[in-house]
Amino acid sequence: MLRVLSRSMRSTQLLRKTTEIVCVSSTRNLNLMEYQSKELLRDSGVSVQNFAIVDDLTKTGSALAKLHADEYVIKAQVLAGGRGKGWFDNGFKGGVHLTKDRNAVANYVKNMLGHRLITKQTSKDGILVQKIMIAESVEIARETYLCILMDRQHNGPVLIASPAGGMDIEAVAAERPEQIKTVPLDIYQGINDEIARDVCVFLGFSRPDVLERAIYELKNLWKLFVDIDALQIEINPLVETTDEQVVAVDAKIAFDDNAQFRQQDLFALEDVSEKDPREVDASRFNLNYIGMDGNIGCLVNGAGLAMATMDIIKLNGGSPANFLDVGGGVKEDQVFQAFRILSEDPKVKVILVNVFGGIVNCTTIAKGIVAASRNLGLKIPLVVRLEGTNVTEAKKVLADSGLPIVTANNLDEAARKAVNRRCESGRVTRKGASRRRDIARKESLLTKRIPSDPKCNLRCEQTP
């Protein structure tokens, strides 16, 4: 699960399909649970379903007493997608349930609260469910789609709207592009009455009273977007109910980590207990870490190169233990902290460093590797592949260190050596060996030599 890439990707792809907008999403964002996003919407005047939170089985009755509806939605609150099709460690299926039986709500809560939910986006161990949201179901007459997100080409926010909500919005853009409306917004003027009315009419809110409610909701949505320094607020669906109300049924909000200094109360809402402790630890040093189930620790600069590295490890019969991106402005201390985090993982049997020195100085990486190996008393086998800026000097630093560091000249060689070092027998698995003939071709897709000054030893990594 690469949450670091998922937050704004869907809406960004939609923009690419419907306009010439090219938007780059942030790689690290604050993640809030669904009920917290609904609280933000509600506090900003955006209408949401009535709901209550249960964090103790004894509180189910008091939570239900606050709700009055013909039907109830019961949702496990975890930071993972695919809840509806997930399953629990006790065998109970589904993290989202709908019932008209008020007495059945307590049983659903009992089977979910305090148990681990496994979905397509979690590890095999799942995530411990510590909160359940019970919400009043709404009678939906019509569903629409709204999204406000930051777009770099327009140097500001863009509003995306569609009368075809409650479904895969990318499919709508591909099959019925006329049902997608994009409106670049002036960051100072925002969504004024004219823009709000035009968009809401496009969404199909035709009755005068319902139209005015929709305009009110949209303007409040913009206010929230500005107030919390959001990168994206997506409402799918924004519904018109059978009793002519306008309600935001589901919301996804992405935040700008650069605004943390002025959004401290907001960032304090994040529940880090759900996260891998190593992920939390890494974020303190501005490192991107995602734990996985393999035993080859990876230290790479750049998300694309990190994913390519994991691919090559798999092709050689190995399995990555993590995704760890040190970024483009990495310092020696960050290299040390990255090694510390990797070495503290008992699953890691070998560490593979794969760094392309474009902005990054390879010498900085090499010095960080040597310092970390010595200061940590590193016992885990270490394979290093460096390329790019000051690579010759960097390789000399490694060679002169006297440490048992295995070096490699290309990505395939590095992955192969890491897999070999991981295996006690010193041989790669048969699965890896059977794929060996394909590796060179894969490597050629990932790396291209750039003709240049013969003194320049620069390589450009290209992830297909």
Describe the 3D structure.
The chain is α+β, with helices and mostly antiparallel strands and 464 residues long. Strands 8, 9, 10, 11, 12 and 13 form a 6-stranded antiparallel β-sheet that branches. Strands 1-7-2-4 form a 4-stranded antiparallel β-sheet. It has 3 domains: 25-49 and 139-275, ATP-grasp fold, B domain (D-amino Acid Aminotransferase, Chain A, domain 1, 2-Layer Sandwich); 50-137, ATP-grasp fold, A domain (Dna Ligase, domain 1, 2-Layer Sandwich); 277-420, Succinyl-CoA synthetase domains (Rossmann fold, 3-Layer(aba) Sandwich), CATH 3.40.50.261. Helices cover 35% and strands 23% of the residues. Strand 17 (350-357), helix 13 and strand 18 form a beta-alpha-beta unit. It is built from 17 helices and 21 strands.
CATH first level of the largest domain: Alpha Beta
What number is the mean pLDDT?
85
Q: Based on the coordinates given, report the CATH architecture of the largest domain.
A: 2-Layer Sandwich
- Give the low-pLDDT segments: 1-7, 19-27, 424-464
Number of helices: 17
Spatial extent as radius of gyration:
25 Å
Number of strands: 21
| Main sheet: strands, sense, barrel | 6 strands, antiparallel
Derived from helix and strand composition plus strand pairing, the structural class reads alpha+beta
Q: Helix share of residues?
A: 25-40%
Distance between the termini: 20 Å
CATH fold name of the largest domain: D-amino Acid Aminotransferase, Chain A, domain 1
Q: Tell me the overall shape.
A: globular
- Beta-strand content estimate: 15-25%
Number of domains: 3
CATH homology superfamily name of the largest domain: ATP-grasp fold, B domain
Domain ATP-citrate synthase/succinyl-CoA ligase C-terminal: 299-419
Pathway: Carbohydrate metabolism; tricarboxylic acid cycle; succinate from succinyl-CoA (ligase route): step 1/1
Pfam family, one: Ligase_CoA
Site (Important for substrate specificity): 71
